[in-house]
Amino acid sequence: MTNFLQKTVLFKPVALGIYFLTFATGVVGALLLPTLSIFFADEVGVSPFWVGIPYAGIAIGSIVYNQVIGAWSDSLKDRRMLVVGLCLVGVLGCLVFALSRHYWLTCLSAVFLLSLAMVAFSQILAYSLEYAENCLPLERIALFNAVVRAQIAFAWVAGPPAGFLIASHWGFTSLYSIAAALFAAVAIVSPKMLPALKLTGHSDEPEVKSGLWGSLNARSRWSLALCVLAFSLMWCVNNAYLISLPLHLTRNLDISTGWVGWIMGAAAGLEVPVMLLAGVLAARMNPLNLVRASALAGLVLYAGVFCATALWQLFALQIANAVFVGILAGLGVSVVQQMLPGRAGSASALYTNTTHVGTLLSSLLISGVAEAYGYLSVFMANMVLVILAGGLFMLVRAGEGVEPQAR
User: Fold this and answer.
1) What percent of the chain has pLDDT above 70?
2) What is the C-alpha separation between 264 and 206, in angstroms, rounded?
3) CATH number of domain containing 284
4) Which of 109, 142, 341, 395 could form a disulfide with 282 if both were Cys (CB 3.0 to 4.6 A apart)?
5) pLDDT at 205 over 70
6) 407: in domain
7) Are 96 and 113 in contact (CB under 8 A)?
8) Domain shared by 41 and 157, yes or no
9) What is the pLDDT of residue 199?
10) Rounded to 5 degrees, what are φ and ψ at 402?
11) Single residue among 191, 224, 251 that ends a domain in this structure
């Protein structure tokens, strides 16, 4: 009976609301980000150099916003109104894209409005962490986190094809109007679907903050720094793979671009069961050990792509891709959460920022390695970096020596 109750807590109305809102915000991101380059290149009519500026600005803006707002949000009793406000910013940003084709106006909107709106995802994730810490049995937290992250995989299975379909048949005005409507819907329903949480240990007295790093002892600070660097490298190689694969297939292997979507869709579909299985296994073992193992899957993937010469080999390698990304995305936030107990906003923001740092690093990797040696060499560089990331994870000791925050 106890086991049955532990399983059903994953399907309570609050949990279902978290799943839905995570999926909804994920769909918005999956509609916007893949189509942004086409928007600037075709609709606004700028060269590739100018197309890259909004992407870099979004990454940098997201890092700053996530870290500042994430740390501040930990002092809030209720972060739901913050989610509402961020979604309304997203509505404004999408309407600018729907109505304007002026480069600098849309570029600044992407950097200052869309990157700020994307913090809504981090805050929903932070709410889910607080809900897990305060309302779920300890052994169910990792599985719950994996189910939450699986919603992003679901969103990215459907979002990019839908975005390109809408843009090609009805235009970018319709696409960004739909994205604005989704942001508005999340703003409206989030206070109803996410009730206020009674946080254990929350005091009405002003909190004496020592900062994110000041709340940890020396060993934990070192482990957290290594962990953040390792996650950044893992997301770097993943992004570099996503950027390089289409060009490697078309230029080096003479494979049609149509197959790229099928390959990526296969990986996204396989990631979901991997995430859920990883969540089950994380209840029986340290999630950090599974993340370490995912680095090995990444090494198999990039070595395989480097050597592959046939389409079926690339499809087969998506199993390794699904294990790599499924564990990384499904359990990464759980590892950071172990190292920052009671700091849900900071944990989710810090983990989310590793994806943005990875985006910046992958841009440098592509610009340097691919420009000098070709796109195939990117996968060789990925092998080196994923080995380095795995080595860094071996030095991390999650959850050791964490000092409680002063109040």
Assistant:
1) 87
2) 48
3) 1.20.1250.20
4) 142
5) no
6) no
7) yes
8) yes
9) 62
10) -80, 125
11) 191
